[in-house]
Amino acid sequence: MSKKLTKREEDYSKWYNELVVKADMAESSGVRGMMVIKPYGYAIWEKMQAELDRMFKETGHENAYFPLLIPKSYFSKEASHVDGFAKECAVVTHYRLKTTDDGKKIVVDEKAKLEEELIIRPTSETIIWDSYRKWIQSYRDLPLLINQWANVVRWEMRTRLFLRTAEFLWQEGHTAHETKEEAIEETKKMQGVYADFAENFMAMPVVKGYKSESERFAGALETYTIEALMQDGKALQAGTSHFLGQNFAKAFDVKFTTRKGKQDYVWATSWGASTRLMGALVMTHSDDKGLVLPPRLAPIQLVIVPIHRNDEQLDAINTKVDKMLKELRSRGVSVKYDKRTTYKPGWKFAEYELKGVPLRIAIGPRDLENNTVELARRDTLTKEII
Amino acid sequence: MSKKLTKREEDYSKWYNELVVKADMAESSGVRGMMVIKPYGYAIWEKMQAELDRMFKETGHENAYFPLLIPKSYFSKEASHVDGFAKECAVVTHYRLKTTDDGKKIVVDEKAKLEEELIIRPTSETIIWDSYRKWIQSYRDLPLLINQWANVVRWEMRTRLFLRTAEFLWQEGHTAHETKEEAIEETKKMQGVYADFAENFMAMPVVKGYKSESERFAGALETYTIEALMQDGKALQAGTSHFLGQNFAKAFDVKFTTRKGKQDYVWATSWGASTRLMGALVMTHSDDKGLVLPPRLAPIQLVIVPIHRNDEQLDAINTKVDKMLKELRSRGVSVKYDKRTTYKPGWKFAEYELKGVPLRIAIGPRDLENNTVELARRDTLTKEII
C-alpha cells in the first residue's frame, strides 16, 4: 500500500503531518499557512462542535455572530491586547480590483483605498465589547453569556496542520458580569467544561492549569488552560479561559447601573477552543498504523468488509449484511459497508486502520455457514470470531 | 411601549429595518455594512442551518472547509468570474501592524507587505477548484459532492440588514461530475431542495426560475433561482444554483480519466443560500405588530405570562406553570415562562408579539379556579379560553 506512514519513533513530527494528510483529514492549500479541512476531518470537527455547543447551551450561553473585520482603531483601544496581536494581523487596505489599462492584468484599484484599515479578527474581544456597550445598561442585563463559532486569522510564521495555522476555526465565548467573583467563577466553569469535554468525549486526559504572567492572553489578568499530554512527552494547550477583569469594559466604556444605583464597569471573561483540538486528538490516540478514533467522534464507527472469491459469494454476503445494516443503523450506529470490488480486503483493512475506524467486521463464505463474523478493534488491534 | 414600529403602508423599507433591530435579530456594527447577528436572530439562523444541513446530507453531500483568503491570481483565472466580483473585493495587502517610532500610533507595517495580495472570499469556486485538481483523477472520484458553511465578503455600496450586507453567512455547495447531464440534474435538484426548504420549513411560497444571461452568476452557463414574493409586491432571490459547465475545470485544469480511458474536464455546479433568507422570512410573515415566526423556526414556540396582583397569586400560578413546563418540555416544545415582575403583562404581550412567538398563554387567578388558560395565536392574533 502506497500510504505507508513514517513511524513515530523515527520522526514524531513527520509522522503527525503524514497521518493528517493520508487519513484525509486536512491538507495544505495554495494560501500560505492556511489548510483545507477535508470531509473526513470536517466530520470529526462537526461532532466536536455539536457536543461543545450542547455543553455551552446547557451552561446558559447563547450564540451570536460578530463581524469578521475590525477597524484598526478598535483594536488599539486596549494597549496590551494590541501589543499581543499586532505582529500577526492580516490587514485589509482596499475594497476593489481593476483591470489595467492595457487589459492584461488584474490589480488592486488604488482609488479604492479604505480610510481606516480593517483587521481580520485574530480574536473578537474588541468588536464584541463595542457592541456590549449598547447591550448593557443595568445589572438586569447581566450576566451576558455569548458564544460565537467563527474563523480567525493569525499570521503565524511557522505553521502545522491543525496545530498552528494562519486561519483556524474556533468558538469564542465572551461574557460580562456584575462582580469580579462571578467573572472568575465563569472563567473556571468554562475551564471545567473544556476539561470534561476533552476527557469524556475525546478520551483525552488533561491537566488544568494557569499561565504565567508572560504567557497570558493579551489583555487578560489570568489565563486558565487545559493541557493535554502528547505521546512525545510534550504538553499541548487544548483550550483557554481568560479572566479579563475590567480591561475591555474600560477600553470600550461599558458601564452598568448596579443594584445600589451606582455606575460601574462590568467584569469580563473570554474562552476558546479551536481546530487545534483535532491535532490533539491525532497525537493522543494514534499509532504507527494510523488514527485511532474514540467511537463518539468517529464519522464511521463500524466498517464491514466482505471477503469473497466470486460474485455468487458476494451476493450471499450482501444479503446477510443488508439485514445487519438495517439493525445497526436503527440503533444509531454509523456503519459503512465497503463492497467495492476495485480494492482487495487487505487494502481496505489498512485503509480503515489508517482512518481510525473503531470497529471492523470481516465476513466471508465460511462465516455465512457458521453464522459468525470476525470483529477487529482498532484501539487494541485484537480480533475475535463472534 | 417605546418599541413602536413604523407601519408597513407608511414606509415598508423603514418598517423592515426597524423590525429587524427592535425584534433583536440584528443590528449594524461599527464596520461599514457589516451586521451583528444577535442571539435571537442567530437562534433562527441555527434552525435554518440545521435543517438545510440535514437536507444536503440526505442528498449525499459532505461538508468541508476551504481557506478564507484567496490569492489574487486564482481569482483571475476564470475571466467572467473576476469581472463579476472585482468591484466588490476586500483586499489583504499586509500582515502586520506596528507602533510608530514615537510610540503614539498603531500603523500598518509597510515592511510586511504581501508579495501577492489576498482576496477575502466573495465566493469560493476558485480556491475549491484549485483543491479539486488534487482530489479528482478518475471517474471513480466522481461525483464529488461538497458543501461549505462559511462567511463571505462582498463590498456592497448600499447595504441593508440581512438582505445585503458586506459580510454574510451562507453555505456554498460545489460539485464535480462526469457528464454535463449529471451536473445539470444536480443543479436542478438543489434548486428543488431550496424550494422545499422555503415552502415546507419557512412557510414561504417561492417560484422556481432562471436568470437571464446578464443576471447570471459570474462564470455560470445557467443560474437557477428560487424567488419569493414579498409583501410589497417585489420578488426576492432566496437561493441560487449554478450550472458552471467546464469553465472552472478548464481554468484550474481539473481533468479525469473517463470510463473509456480518455481524459476530459469535469462538469461543475455551485449553489448557495445565505442569511438573506432571514430577511425573506421577516418580509414574508411579519405585520405591523412585529415578526410572525413559523413554529419550526421559532427560538421560543410558546411563551407563558402570569397575570397577578400580589406575590401570593404569583406563587400559585408558578406552581401550576411549573407542572405545565415539565410536560411541554418533555414533548419537545420550546417554552419560556416570563415571570419577571419588572415588566407588566401588557408590555410582555407586545414584546412577544414583536418577536413573533407563535403561541402565548396568559394565566391568572381566575384561570387557576376554572382550570383554564387564555391562548393567543400570533399569526391570526386570535384568542381563546381553553
UniProtKB/TrEMBL annotation, chains A, B:
GO terms for molecular function: ATP binding; proline-tRNA ligase activity. SUPFAM superfamilies: Class II aaRS ABD-related, Class II aaRS and biotin synthetases. Its EC number is 6.1.1.15. InterPro entries: aa-tRNA-synt_IIb, aa-tRNA-synth_II, aa-tRNA-synth_II/BPL/LPL, Anticodon-bd, Anticodon-bd_dom_sf, Pro-tRNA-ligase_IIa_arc-type, ProRS_core_arch_euk. One of its GO terms (cellular component) is cytoplasm. It catalyses: tRNA(Pro) + L-proline + ATP = L-prolyl-tRNA(Pro) + AMP + diphosphate. Keywords: Aminoacyl-tRNA synthetase, ATP-binding, Ligase, Nucleotide-binding. Residues 27-294 form the Aminoacyl-transfer RNA synthetases class-II family profile domain. GO terms for biological process: prolyl-tRNA aminoacylation. PANTHER family: BIFUNCTIONAL GLUTAMATE_PROLINE--TRNA LIGASE, PROLYL-TRNA SYNTHETASE. This is proline--tRNA ligase.
